[in-house]
Amino acid sequence: MTRTDCVPPDEIRALFSIALSDMYRTEVPQYGALLELVASVNADALASAPDLMARLECRGELARLDVERHGAIRVGTAAELFDMRRLFAVMGMVPVGYYDLSVAGVPVHSTAFRPVGAADLRRNPFRVFTSLLRLDLIGDEALRAEAAAILSARRIFTPRAMELVAVSETQGGLDHDQAAGFVREALETFRWHAQANVGLSTYKALVAAHRLVADIVSFKGPHINHLTPRTLDIDAAQARMVAQGMAAKAQIEGPPRRDCPILLRQTSFKALSEPVGFATGQGDVLGTHTARFGEIEQRGAALTPKGRLLYDQLLAAARRDAQAGSGDDGQALAMRFRAFPDDWRMLRDQGLAFFRYFPTPAGLAAPEDRMSVLSVDDLVDRGYLGYEPITYEDFLPVSAAGIFQSNLGAGERRQYDERSSRASFEQALGAPVRDEMVLYADEQSLSIRTALARLGLDPD
Ligand code: OOG
Ligand code: NI
Question: What residue owns the CA closest to ligand 1's atom 7?
Answer without folding.
Answer: 400
